């Protein structure tokens, strides 16, 4: 099975709210953390920083540590793909976002971006990935990387 290592960014604003993106064309609504593939030769933190800049325009966030790790098999064009996802903490001073770095594919994939409080995450009827994000955020920053369920 083909594998795709990824860096997902748990971006927190000064109020402790987390940024999620809504995936276009999903019913029920699917909300995920920003991030993407780790390029050959790139570290997890470097990939997280690059993805953060590309998807939000934020370049001055405090980055690290890696909080969680999870694996998930998803099917693309009938082919299973193993996602090896690293979840990296990032803290930013501003909630101002830019889509200037988005690719045409990202413009089709992302329906919207929104800041969520932990309480909103805990009570939303929408699908959030990782599924226990509210509880994970309430637990605080772990001392070592935890393996988490994604769905």
UniProtKB/TrEMBL annotation:
Which keywords annotate this record?
Answer: Hydrolase, Magnesium
Q: Which domain of life is it from?
A: Bacteria
Keyword Magnesium (UniProt) = yes
Cofactor(s) the record lists:
Mg(2+)
Span of the secretion signal? none
- What Gene3D superfamilies does the entry give? Nucleoside Triphosphate Pyrophosphohydrolase
Give every Nudix hydrolase domain span.
2-139
Keyword Cytoplasm belongs to the record? no
The record, for InterPro entries, names:
Nudix_hydrolase, NUDIX_hydrolase-like_dom_sf, NUDIX_hydrolase_CS, NUDIX_hydrolase_dom
Read off the PANTHER family from this record: GDP-MANNOSE MANNOSYL HYDROLASE (PTHR43046)
The family annotation for this protein states:
Belongs to the Nudix hydrolase family.
Q: What is this protein called?
A: NUDIX domain-containing protein
Originating organism: Actinomycetospora flava
